[in-house]
Amino acid sequence: MTETGDRRPLASRNTRWAQAIARRLASMNVTPNRISQASMLAAALAGLSFWLAGETEDGSRAALYIAAALFCQLRLLCNLFDGMVAVEGGKGEADGPFWNEFPDRVADILIFIGAGCGLGVPALGFAAATFAVLTAYVRELGRANGGPSDFSGPMAKQHRMATMTLAAVLSAFEGLWLGDGEILWIALLLVSAGAALTALLRARRQIAWLRHRNTGNH
Fold first, then answer.
1. Contacts of 118 (CB under 8 A, 6+ apart)
2. 21: containing domain
3. Is residue 4 in some structural domain?
4. CB under 8 Å to 105, separation ≥6 — which residues?
């Protein structure tokens, strides 16, 4: 992965623990692209855990939801460290821009479709995945048009993963006070609606920016 100054703002990037791990990774025979690729594996395991959780009961179900939460967070850690190793570690690669974006789109698809299938409502998972990919498409379209990257929410990548992580943890104990599936169903609905709104707001800001730029050129 190769990043420039146009990077997603992350407070965790400036923490001591993240910088220490990034330095350690950079000193090893680990490339940013491999870290980016590992995020797809983490996402696949998260999606599979969500899916299997819908097919099991009791303790195994709770363990699978906890695993899904952990793999969602591992996906985010990969997203953090690939950029830090590339930029701060000086190990950016020529094909980095591809691995910067492609694994994230695959990860969203795997996680949300897995969760939807686990609920027995695959259409909701596909909706969440579609709108998640759309948010990234609008952002990259803005860059292609010469504008800055718009990483704003309300349902950007980190918000989507936070929603799914929290839903997975709560779902592990859901049977104690609710029926099974309600929390995850609500989470997917929130991600779908929130990502659709995010794409719309990003599109509106992009159109306003383009109009302002063109007006300024005359």
1. 50, 51, 52, 53, 54, 55, 184
2. 11-216
3. no
4. 133, 136
* CATH number for the domain harbouring residue 58: 1.20.120.1760
The pTM of this model reads 0.90
Which pLDDT score, from 0 to 100, does residue 178 have? 61
- Per-residue tokens: 168: 């997975």
What is the number of structural domains in the chain?
A: 1
How far CA 69 is from CA of 21, 54, 74, 143, in Å, comes to: 21, 15, 9, 32
Q: Residue type at 33? A: N
Q: Peptide bond before 154: cis, by omega within 30 degrees of 0?
A: yes
Longest dimension (CA), the chain: 67
**Residue at 2 is within a domain:** no
Residue 6 forms part of a structural domain: no
- Measured CA to CA, the distance from residue 74 to residue 52 in angstroms comes to 19
Cβ atoms of 157 and 79 closer than 8 Å:
yes
**Distance from C-alpha of 55 to C-alpha of 117, rounded to nearest angstrom:** 10
Q: What is the pLDDT of residue 3?
A: 36
Structure tokens at 210: 């383009």
Q: Is residue 196 part of a domain?
A: yes
The two tokens of residue 6 are 């146009």
Per-residue pLDDT, 129: 98
- Please give the single-letter amino acid code of residue 92: G
Low-confidence ranges of the chain (pLDDT < 50): 1-5
Instruction: Say how many CA atoms lie within 13 Å of 58 toward its Cβ.
Output: 1
